[in-house]
Write a structure and sequence with these properties.
The strands form four sheets. Strands 1, 4, 5, 6, 7, 8, 10, 11, 12, 14, 19 and 20 form a twelve-stranded mixed β-sheet that branches. Strands 9-22-21-13-18-17 form a six-stranded antiparallel β-sheet, with no helix packed on it. It is globular, with a radius of gyration of 21 Å. The chain has six helices and 22 strands. With about 375 residues, the chain is mostly beta strands. It starts with 5 loop residues before the first strand and ends with a strand.
Length: about 375
Amino acid sequence: MYKKLLSFSLVLVVLFTTFSTSVLHAQSTEDIINSIPIVEFQLKPETKSSLNLSEYDDAKVILVTKETAYSAKRDTLVSLVRADNTVFFKDMLPEEVKEITGLDFLVEDYDNELNVEQDEINLGTSLTMVDDVYQCIHSTIVSAQECAEPCEECGAVGDSNAYELIVEASDYDYAARSAYANAKIFELSEPKGFPPLADYIYARSITVKYGLLTLGQVGYTLNIYRRGKATINDVQRKVYDCIASVYSSPKSIYRVTYEQCSLGVINSSKHAFLDQSQIKSQGISATVNCSLSNGVDGVSWKFDLSSFFATNNFSSSKEKMWKIVPVFPGNGDSWGFQPGVRCYAVSSSSSTGKIIINVTGLFSNCSMLVHHLGKITGIFGFSI
Protein backbone atom coordinates (compact mmCIF):
# COMPACT_ATOMS: atom_id res chain seq x y z
CA MET A 1 0.00 0.00 0.00
CA TYR A 2 1.28 3.43 -0.92
CA LYS A 3 2.55 5.42 2.03
CA LYS A 4 2.22 9.18 1.97
CA LEU A 5 5.28 10.75 3.49
CA LEU A 6 5.10 13.70 5.80
CA SER A 7 8.01 16.10 5.96
CA PHE A 8 8.12 18.14 9.15
CA SER A 9 10.95 20.67 9.34
CA LEU A 10 11.74 22.07 12.77
CA VAL A 11 14.28 24.63 13.94
CA LEU A 12 15.76 24.43 17.45
CA VAL A 13 12.79 24.52 19.80
CA VAL A 14 12.65 26.53 23.00
CA LEU A 15 8.89 26.28 23.54
CA PHE A 16 6.84 27.70 26.33
CA THR A 17 3.56 26.80 24.58
CA THR A 18 1.51 23.94 23.22
CA PHE A 19 -1.35 23.45 20.79
CA SER A 20 -4.91 22.60 21.73
CA THR A 21 -7.60 22.35 19.07
CA SER A 22 -6.34 24.90 16.56
CA VAL A 23 -5.46 27.42 19.26
CA LEU A 24 -2.25 27.99 21.20
CA HIS A 25 -2.13 28.26 24.98
CA ALA A 26 0.84 29.37 27.04
CA GLN A 27 2.36 26.47 28.97
CA SER A 28 5.92 25.99 30.21
CA THR A 29 7.55 22.97 28.57
CA GLU A 30 11.26 23.49 29.23
CA ASP A 31 11.38 21.02 32.12
CA ILE A 32 9.56 18.39 30.05
CA ILE A 33 11.94 18.79 27.13
CA ASN A 34 15.05 18.70 29.32
CA SER A 35 13.89 15.46 30.95
CA ILE A 36 13.72 13.50 27.67
CA PRO A 37 16.62 11.00 27.53
CA ILE A 38 18.92 10.69 24.51
CA VAL A 39 20.71 7.48 23.52
CA GLU A 40 23.52 7.59 20.96
CA PHE A 41 23.44 4.87 18.30
CA GLN A 42 26.70 2.94 18.38
CA LEU A 43 27.61 1.11 15.19
CA LYS A 44 28.79 -2.39 16.07
CA PRO A 45 29.97 -5.17 13.73
CA GLU A 46 26.70 -7.06 14.21
CA THR A 47 24.56 -4.05 13.26
CA LYS A 48 26.09 -4.08 9.79
CA SER A 49 24.81 -7.59 9.12
CA SER A 50 21.86 -7.90 11.50
CA LEU A 51 18.75 -5.88 12.35
CA ASN A 52 18.76 -6.93 16.01
CA LEU A 53 18.35 -3.48 17.53
CA SER A 54 16.47 -4.48 20.66
CA GLU A 55 18.73 -2.43 22.93
CA TYR A 56 17.13 0.72 21.45
CA ASP A 57 13.52 -0.45 21.89
CA ASP A 58 12.91 1.83 24.89
CA ALA A 59 14.84 4.84 23.58
CA LYS A 60 12.77 7.98 23.01
CA VAL A 61 15.49 9.88 21.16
CA ILE A 62 18.25 8.08 19.25
CA LEU A 63 21.16 10.28 18.16
CA VAL A 64 23.09 9.23 15.04
CA THR A 65 26.28 11.07 14.11
CA LYS A 66 26.99 11.84 10.47
CA GLU A 67 29.94 9.45 10.39
CA THR A 68 27.83 6.62 11.81
CA ALA A 69 24.96 7.32 9.41
CA TYR A 70 27.21 6.95 6.36
CA SER A 71 28.78 3.78 7.76
CA ALA A 72 25.55 1.95 8.62
CA LYS A 73 23.33 0.00 6.24
CA ARG A 74 20.22 1.76 4.90
CA ASP A 75 17.77 -0.80 6.33
CA THR A 76 19.43 -0.51 9.74
CA LEU A 77 18.84 3.24 9.85
CA VAL A 78 15.24 2.91 8.67
CA SER A 79 14.57 0.18 11.25
CA LEU A 80 15.58 2.54 14.05
CA VAL A 81 12.61 4.80 13.24
CA ARG A 82 9.42 3.86 15.09
CA ALA A 83 6.10 5.42 16.03
CA ASP A 84 7.21 5.96 19.63
CA ASN A 85 10.62 7.57 19.06
CA THR A 86 12.61 10.05 16.99
CA VAL A 87 15.99 9.47 15.36
CA PHE A 88 18.15 12.61 15.24
CA PHE A 89 20.77 12.69 12.45
CA LYS A 90 23.25 15.22 13.81
CA ASP A 91 24.66 17.81 11.36
CA MET A 92 22.66 16.35 8.45
CA LEU A 93 20.25 18.15 6.12
CA PRO A 94 16.87 16.66 5.10
CA GLU A 95 18.20 15.99 1.59
CA GLU A 96 21.07 13.97 3.03
CA VAL A 97 18.76 11.96 5.27
CA LYS A 98 16.40 11.39 2.33
CA GLU A 99 19.26 10.02 0.22
CA ILE A 100 20.81 7.86 2.90
CA THR A 101 17.51 6.29 4.06
CA GLY A 102 15.84 6.04 0.64
CA LEU A 103 12.62 7.64 1.97
CA ASP A 104 10.78 9.89 -0.50
CA PHE A 105 9.32 12.74 1.57
CA LEU A 106 8.55 16.31 0.45
CA VAL A 107 11.43 18.76 0.90
CA GLU A 108 11.79 22.44 0.12
CA ASP A 109 12.49 23.50 -3.46
CA TYR A 110 15.80 25.33 -3.09
CA ASP A 111 16.37 25.54 -6.86
CA ASN A 112 13.52 27.98 -7.22
CA GLU A 113 12.64 30.85 -9.54
CA LEU A 114 12.78 33.44 -6.74
CA ASN A 115 16.20 32.39 -5.43
CA VAL A 116 15.08 32.94 -1.83
CA GLU A 117 17.82 32.51 0.76
CA GLN A 118 17.65 32.54 4.54
CA ASP A 119 20.66 32.66 6.82
CA GLU A 120 20.43 29.62 9.07
CA ILE A 121 22.71 27.31 11.01
CA ASN A 122 21.94 23.63 10.55
CA LEU A 123 21.83 21.35 13.60
CA GLY A 124 20.41 18.16 12.15
CA THR A 125 17.33 16.28 10.96
CA SER A 126 15.07 13.92 12.90
CA LEU A 127 12.86 11.12 11.59
CA THR A 128 9.80 9.59 13.22
CA MET A 129 6.53 7.90 12.25
CA VAL A 130 2.83 8.54 12.84
CA ASP A 131 0.30 5.99 11.50
CA ASP A 132 2.74 4.65 8.88
CA VAL A 133 3.62 8.22 7.83
CA TYR A 134 7.27 9.28 8.05
CA GLN A 135 7.98 12.71 9.49
CA CYS A 136 11.18 14.61 8.67
CA ILE A 137 12.09 17.21 11.27
CA HIS A 138 14.76 19.72 10.26
CA SER A 139 16.43 21.64 13.11
CA THR A 140 18.14 25.00 12.56
CA ILE A 141 18.63 28.36 14.28
CA VAL A 142 18.22 31.85 12.78
CA SER A 143 19.11 35.35 13.93
CA ALA A 144 16.42 37.77 15.01
CA GLN A 145 16.06 41.08 13.22
CA GLU A 146 15.88 44.00 15.65
CA CYS A 147 13.41 46.76 14.77
CA ALA A 148 13.09 50.27 16.18
CA GLU A 149 9.30 50.07 15.96
CA PRO A 150 6.60 47.58 14.92
CA CYS A 151 6.55 48.81 11.35
CA GLU A 152 4.94 47.10 8.37
CA GLU A 153 8.28 46.44 6.67
CA CYS A 154 10.66 45.75 9.52
CA GLY A 155 13.23 44.37 7.12
CA ALA A 156 13.95 47.85 5.88
CA VAL A 157 15.21 49.09 9.24
CA GLY A 158 16.14 45.92 11.09
CA ASP A 159 19.65 44.75 11.91
CA SER A 160 20.08 40.98 12.10
CA ASN A 161 23.85 41.17 12.50
CA ALA A 162 24.09 43.14 15.74
CA TYR A 163 25.28 40.00 17.50
CA GLU A 164 26.92 36.92 16.07
CA LEU A 165 24.64 33.90 16.16
CA ILE A 166 26.37 31.43 18.49
CA VAL A 167 25.59 27.71 18.54
CA GLU A 168 26.42 25.88 21.76
CA ALA A 169 26.95 22.15 22.20
CA SER A 170 23.75 21.94 24.22
CA ASP A 171 21.76 23.28 21.25
CA TYR A 172 22.10 19.92 19.47
CA ASP A 173 20.63 17.94 22.36
CA TYR A 174 17.90 20.50 22.83
CA ALA A 175 17.00 20.30 19.13
CA ALA A 176 16.79 16.50 19.31
CA ARG A 177 14.67 16.54 22.49
CA SER A 178 12.40 19.28 21.13
CA ALA A 179 11.74 17.34 17.93
CA TYR A 180 10.53 14.41 20.02
CA ALA A 181 8.45 16.62 22.30
CA ASN A 182 6.68 18.34 19.45
CA ALA A 183 6.01 15.16 17.48
CA LYS A 184 5.07 12.85 20.35
CA ILE A 185 3.95 14.96 23.31
CA PHE A 186 2.53 18.19 21.89
CA GLU A 187 1.70 16.83 18.40
CA LEU A 188 2.42 20.12 16.64
CA SER A 189 2.77 18.28 13.31
CA GLU A 190 -0.95 17.36 13.20
CA PRO A 191 -3.18 20.46 13.33
CA LYS A 192 -6.70 19.66 14.41
CA GLY A 193 -9.72 20.60 12.32
CA PHE A 194 -8.09 20.41 8.87
CA PRO A 195 -9.78 18.48 6.05
CA PRO A 196 -8.56 14.86 6.19
CA LEU A 197 -6.31 12.93 3.81
CA ALA A 198 -3.76 15.55 2.78
CA ASP A 199 -1.50 14.37 -0.03
CA TYR A 200 1.50 16.29 1.29
CA ILE A 201 2.21 17.78 4.70
CA TYR A 202 5.26 19.87 5.44
CA ALA A 203 5.82 21.58 8.76
CA ARG A 204 8.60 23.91 9.80
CA SER A 205 9.40 26.21 12.67
CA ILE A 206 12.34 28.46 13.39
CA THR A 207 13.73 29.39 16.75
CA VAL A 208 14.65 33.05 16.71
CA LYS A 209 17.84 33.91 18.64
CA TYR A 210 19.57 37.23 19.29
CA GLY A 211 23.13 36.27 20.14
CA LEU A 212 22.76 33.83 23.04
CA LEU A 213 19.23 35.01 23.83
CA THR A 214 16.34 32.86 22.62
CA LEU A 215 13.26 34.97 21.83
CA GLY A 216 10.72 32.41 20.62
CA GLN A 217 9.46 30.55 17.57
CA VAL A 218 7.74 31.23 14.27
CA GLY A 219 6.39 28.26 12.35
CA TYR A 220 3.83 26.65 10.09
CA THR A 221 2.37 23.35 8.99
CA LEU A 222 1.35 23.28 5.31
CA ASN A 223 -1.24 20.74 4.13
CA ILE A 224 -1.53 20.22 0.37
CA TYR A 225 -4.51 18.45 -1.25
CA ARG A 226 -4.83 17.25 -4.84
CA ARG A 227 -8.42 18.03 -5.92
CA GLY A 228 -8.52 16.51 -9.39
CA LYS A 229 -9.67 18.35 -12.51
CA ALA A 230 -12.14 21.22 -12.94
CA THR A 231 -13.44 23.06 -15.99
CA ILE A 232 -11.91 26.54 -15.90
CA ASN A 233 -12.48 28.86 -18.88
CA ASP A 234 -13.85 25.88 -20.83
CA VAL A 235 -10.65 23.87 -20.28
CA GLN A 236 -9.98 20.98 -17.90
CA ARG A 237 -7.25 21.97 -15.44
CA LYS A 238 -5.80 20.37 -12.30
CA VAL A 239 -6.75 21.92 -8.95
CA TYR A 240 -5.04 21.84 -5.53
CA ASP A 241 -5.69 23.31 -2.08
CA CYS A 242 -3.03 24.65 0.32
CA ILE A 243 -4.07 25.20 3.94
CA ALA A 244 -1.55 26.43 6.51
CA SER A 245 -1.48 26.46 10.30
CA VAL A 246 0.87 29.27 11.34
CA TYR A 247 1.97 30.32 14.83
CA SER A 248 4.29 32.55 16.81
CA SER A 249 5.43 31.41 20.27
CA PRO A 250 7.44 33.91 22.34
CA LYS A 251 9.37 33.23 25.52
CA SER A 252 7.85 34.44 28.77
CA ILE A 253 9.41 37.94 28.66
CA TYR A 254 8.13 38.63 25.13
CA ARG A 255 4.73 39.02 23.52
CA VAL A 256 3.42 38.75 19.94
CA THR A 257 2.82 42.18 18.36
CA TYR A 258 1.52 40.73 15.11
CA GLU A 259 1.66 37.62 12.94
CA GLN A 260 1.45 37.54 9.16
CA CYS A 261 1.20 34.83 6.50
CA SER A 262 1.16 34.93 2.72
CA LEU A 263 0.56 32.10 0.24
CA GLY A 264 1.77 32.66 -3.32
CA VAL A 265 1.90 30.89 -6.68
CA ILE A 266 5.40 32.15 -7.63
CA ASN A 267 4.58 32.52 -11.37
CA SER A 268 1.01 33.58 -12.18
CA SER A 269 1.41 32.51 -15.81
CA LYS A 270 1.84 28.90 -14.66
CA HIS A 271 -0.41 28.73 -11.56
CA ALA A 272 -3.37 30.84 -10.49
CA PHE A 273 -5.86 31.24 -7.64
CA LEU A 274 -9.46 30.05 -7.62
CA ASP A 275 -10.34 31.02 -4.05
CA GLN A 276 -8.92 32.07 -0.66
CA SER A 277 -10.25 31.89 2.88
CA GLN A 278 -11.54 34.99 4.66
CA ILE A 279 -10.51 35.75 8.25
CA LYS A 280 -12.52 38.49 9.97
CA SER A 281 -11.61 40.50 13.09
CA GLN A 282 -13.10 39.20 16.34
CA GLY A 283 -13.78 41.41 19.35
CA ILE A 284 -14.04 38.41 21.67
CA SER A 285 -12.63 34.91 21.78
CA ALA A 286 -14.34 33.05 18.97
CA THR A 287 -14.36 30.10 16.61
CA VAL A 288 -13.26 31.27 13.16
CA ASN A 289 -14.86 29.37 10.26
CA CYS A 290 -12.94 29.11 6.97
CA SER A 291 -13.77 27.55 3.62
CA LEU A 292 -12.63 27.12 0.01
CA SER A 293 -14.95 26.56 -2.93
CA ASN A 294 -15.07 27.24 -6.69
CA GLY A 295 -14.07 24.72 -9.35
CA VAL A 296 -14.47 21.52 -7.34
CA ASP A 297 -16.22 20.43 -4.13
CA GLY A 298 -15.84 22.88 -1.27
CA VAL A 299 -13.93 22.22 1.96
CA SER A 300 -14.19 23.89 5.36
CA TRP A 301 -12.29 24.04 8.64
CA LYS A 302 -12.29 26.12 11.81
CA PHE A 303 -9.99 27.29 14.59
CA ASP A 304 -10.35 29.06 17.93
CA LEU A 305 -8.59 32.31 18.75
CA SER A 306 -8.78 35.11 21.31
CA SER A 307 -9.85 38.60 20.20
CA PHE A 308 -7.81 40.03 17.32
CA PHE A 309 -7.80 42.48 14.43
CA ALA A 310 -7.46 40.85 11.00
CA THR A 311 -6.31 42.21 7.66
CA ASN A 312 -6.95 40.29 4.42
CA ASN A 313 -5.13 41.48 1.30
CA PHE A 314 -6.20 39.56 -1.82
CA SER A 315 -5.49 42.22 -4.48
CA SER A 316 -2.39 40.54 -5.93
CA SER A 317 -2.67 37.81 -8.56
CA LYS A 318 0.56 36.25 -7.23
CA GLU A 319 -0.07 36.03 -3.47
CA LYS A 320 -2.75 36.27 -0.80
CA MET A 321 -1.92 37.75 2.61
CA TRP A 322 -3.44 37.59 6.10
CA LYS A 323 -2.31 39.55 9.16
CA ILE A 324 -3.41 39.04 12.78
CA VAL A 325 -2.90 41.66 15.51
CA PRO A 326 -3.79 40.43 19.03
CA VAL A 327 -6.06 42.77 20.99
CA PHE A 328 -4.70 41.67 24.37
CA PRO A 329 -1.27 40.06 23.83
CA GLY A 330 0.19 38.55 26.98
CA ASN A 331 3.79 37.80 27.79
CA GLY A 332 4.59 34.26 26.68
CA ASP A 333 1.23 33.82 24.92
CA SER A 334 1.31 32.09 21.53
CA TRP A 335 -0.91 33.09 18.63
CA GLY A 336 -1.85 31.06 15.58
CA PHE A 337 -4.32 31.02 12.72
CA GLN A 338 -5.11 28.91 9.63
CA PRO A 339 -5.42 30.54 6.17
CA GLY A 340 -5.88 28.65 2.91
CA VAL A 341 -5.99 29.01 -0.90
CA ARG A 342 -7.31 27.00 -3.84
CA CYS A 343 -5.09 27.03 -6.93
CA TYR A 344 -4.88 25.45 -10.37
CA ALA A 345 -2.28 24.76 -13.04
CA VAL A 346 -2.81 27.19 -15.94
CA SER A 347 -1.63 24.72 -18.57
CA SER A 348 -4.11 21.89 -19.15
CA SER A 349 -1.18 19.50 -19.62
CA SER A 350 0.58 20.47 -16.39
CA SER A 351 0.63 17.98 -13.51
CA THR A 352 2.86 20.02 -11.15
CA GLY A 353 1.76 22.40 -8.42
CA LYS A 354 3.78 25.18 -6.80
CA ILE A 355 3.33 27.20 -3.61
CA ILE A 356 5.40 29.68 -1.64
CA ILE A 357 4.65 30.45 1.99
CA ASN A 358 5.97 33.37 4.04
CA VAL A 359 5.32 33.59 7.79
CA THR A 360 6.38 36.54 9.96
CA GLY A 361 6.10 36.98 13.71
CA LEU A 362 7.01 40.20 15.52
CA PHE A 363 8.01 39.83 19.18
CA SER A 364 8.16 42.76 21.62
CA ASN A 365 9.57 43.00 25.11
CA CYS A 366 7.46 43.95 28.13
CA SER A 367 8.12 47.66 27.68
CA MET A 368 7.19 47.48 23.97
CA LEU A 369 10.37 49.46 23.23
CA VAL A 370 12.33 46.67 21.52
CA HIS A 371 10.90 44.57 18.68
CA HIS A 372 12.40 41.48 17.07
CA LEU A 373 11.27 40.02 13.78
CA GLY A 374 11.31 36.33 12.88
CA LYS A 375 10.55 35.39 9.28
CA ILE A 376 10.47 32.10 7.44
CA THR A 377 9.97 31.27 3.74
CA GLY A 378 9.25 27.92 2.11
CA ILE A 379 8.89 27.05 -1.60
CA PHE A 380 7.50 23.73 -2.80
CA GLY A 381 6.88 21.87 -6.03
CA PHE A 382 4.74 18.71 -6.08
CA SER A 383 2.74 16.41 -8.33
CA ILE A 384 -0.99 17.18 -8.66
